[in-house]
Amino acid sequence: MKLAVIGTGYVGLVSGVCFAELGNDVICVDKLEDKIAKLQAGEVPIYEPGLKELIASNAAAGRLRFTTDLPSAVRAADIVILAVGTPSLPSGEANLSFIKQAAKEIGESLDGYKIIVTKSTVPVGTNEKVGAIVSEHTIHSFDIASVPEFLREGSAIADTLNPDRIVIGTDSGIARERLSALHRPLTDNILLTDIRSAEMIKYASNAFLATKISFINEIANICEKVGADVTRVAEGMGHDRRIGSSFLKAGIGYGGSCFPKDTEALIQIAGHVDYEFKLLKSVVEVNRDQRFGVIRKLEATLGELAGKTVAVWGLAFKPETDDVRDAPAFEIIQTLVDSGVRVRAYDPVAQDNFSRQLDHPRVDYCASAEEAAAGADALCLLTEWKEFREFPLARLETLLRRPVLIDGRNQFTEEELAGTSFVYYSVGRPNLSKGVREQSPALQF
Ligand SMILES: NC(=O)C1=CN([C@@H]2O[C@H](COP(=O)(O)OP(=O)(O)OC[C@H]3O[C@@H](n4cnc5c(N)ncnc54)[C@H](O)[C@@H]3O)[C@@H](O)[C@H]2O)C=CC1
Ligand SMILES: O=C(O)[C@H]1O[C@H](OP(=O)(O)OP(=O)(O)OC[C@H]2O[C@@H](n3ccc(=O)[nH]c3=O)[C@H](O)[C@@H]2O)[C@H](O)[C@@H](O)[C@@H]1O
Which molecular function terms from Gene Ontology are attached (predicted)? Predict the structure, then answer.
């Protein structure tokens, strides 16, 4: 099939290249001339494992092209896929200006029947709005469909090529048939729905995953007070197939370009129909506070923070990505420098993106994990990159001025820390001092 994909962010690029890999003829479109020029030259604007190679092979095979010429790409396609951004407005609502503008441009470009698919995450009712905008600008017939995207950054290609399910929301028989045929090579698990339910499935899925994370983070916070270990608790819960073991990793809370914005947007969607989504409001509130656990633990060990030097390992919101959108590291580092701390930060991949957005005289960006740790009063691990997990603890002990390790991602085990001199605070697990568990407080009944 011939596809035009509008927007070359994560979703546009990854789904475009994966459809090309399946043998379709794909043109990816973006407004940004620089971005398209780079893609045409074989450069990939984002760090995503495997993406560069897959783009190169499909471009060389002539199945994948890049352009800024939206009208020509739309005319050459049978199916037009909208993958533009839907960032948050200050109110928390989704900003639909990119969607609306792209819908207008698509409408103006139509020269015959097309299927117009929205992959961007959009509030219920948006696809109908897209249909109305396209209609205003064309005399040609078209159908609309909502096909939400569920890929995760860092494993985007594997997720796209092996999806748990594909959701196709449309009221058109032709669109249902052609979009099922397009996705069937990926999975047989295709769920056909109406448009509004498909739009809701995406928000409900992200909100539920965010809820699991905030739930386990609250359990972790209680574990710290009662002397239990949240990793064992999550393991014990996860064996129950009704609960499942995924998304039960306690830590510094969720970040990224989607959970924070989509939870806020769903609260607004509910509010517009006079429904207060109390549970999701709490999920967001718990998440906002969770990152400050790192600061509280630093204060508990170092006392007054002003004048101290703190190393930070990890700036991306999760490993295997250079995306720093809504990364908890921003607020943690900002709070530290506001308290008079000098920060020595390092991330193997996301450092350039991060430092462009947080430039402060008390933040030094370092060339290596080792350089960041050298001479610091404490080290905070904020992103679970493999290189941090594999860093020899004996070496780290000698680099730090004080062997204080605040592990925001529960990366090290008690066995690994046994025999070291670390004061070790993690999330929802007993604190260790010189490798030995600190006494849990007596419980009152
Ligand atoms: N990033 C992710 O992992 C996932 C994102 N989503 C959703 O997918 C959508 C896209 O997200 P990202 O890929 O992160 O977006 P992004 O914001 O990184 O990129 C969007 C791209 O669209 C381009 N664009 C905007 N208007 C355009 C127009 N009229 N014509 C051509 N290009 C245009 C922009 O220049 C930009 O390059 C969002 O709704 C997001 O919520 C869904 C699942 C995963
Ligand atoms: O709509 C989206 O954009 C995407 O949002 C998430 O994907 P992503 O944000 O790339 O990454 P996740 O792996 O879900 O992690 C999100 C955040 O939650 C945190 N997390 C995740 C899992 C966990 O157990 N604990 C936890 O704290 C991560 O550290 C990270 O900050 C969803 O997992 C995707 O299905 C969805 O398509």
Answer: NAD binding; UDP-glucose 6-dehydrogenase activity
